[in-house]
Amino acid sequence: MEWRCEWCGKPHEENDPPCDNCGHGTYERAVKQVNDEVAPGGSVWVCQDCGREHMRNRPPCKRCGGSDFERRVGPPETDPLDEIGTSWSDVIEAKYVVGYLAVAALLALIVLTTFGFVSLPGIGGDAATAPPAVPDAPGSADTAGGLDLAATEDAYVDVLNELRGAAGGSPLARNATVDEAAAYYNKARVDARYGDGEGPDREALNGFGLACSRPSVVAYEVAYDRTGQSVGDFDDESALATALVESYVERGAPYRGAETGDVGVDIHVGPDGRVFVTHVLC
Description:
By secondary structure, the chain is of the alpha+beta class. The protein has three domains: 43-89, no CATH class; 93-127; 135-281, CATH 3.40.33.10. Helix content is 27%, strand content 17%. It has five helices and twelve strands. Helix 3 crosses helix 5. It is elongated and about 80 Å long.
């Protein structure tokens, strides 16, 4: 594979986003991986107790005395304990135990502070990550070609649910918080294309406090001017929404599942008539 998704790393034959695994809209050149079975280094025997590598299957282990060895083929792995001259048995010394207890106490304090049981300056609810501002992107976020883009977004969800149902997928319900996340992501893309923005930050979606742990982002754009058509040539919002969903489906993208069944949609028309679409599944 010559290309891979910049976000999740899935390999692809062509540079044709979005990714069919996570929906990210950018690919990067892939680095070909060397087959472990033909990589230099031959085979080694690894102690299953401490991880020490040995050239022969001759227990006991030189480090911990273990007798359970397992053969592995491929290049040798770096063992940090070999460089510092420390064996795994050393970690139970008193000086290390004291360090473990200190770290455990610190982690416990952070957890208690996060959930409001203990109050510390700069930690807890007041320090929660704020959602990023939705950029004032060039183009139109309200109407285009006489069509209401908010109504187009509603119709987009209806059309998407109809096709998902036909494919055996579960229905999605539009959610205001996920809508805001989709608006940020989509308009940041538009601002980067026509303005001076840097584009969306995938990690910034965590600031919206979404109900899911890892939202799925589908972002793409449609240039109707290439076909001699414009947004205003569609009869109504439903017709435009159907065309946008069909454009997504034609790219071979699957109907992804959602943790909570929530969806957010943002449709923005750029200054040149190009339609930018982002929908976020949660």
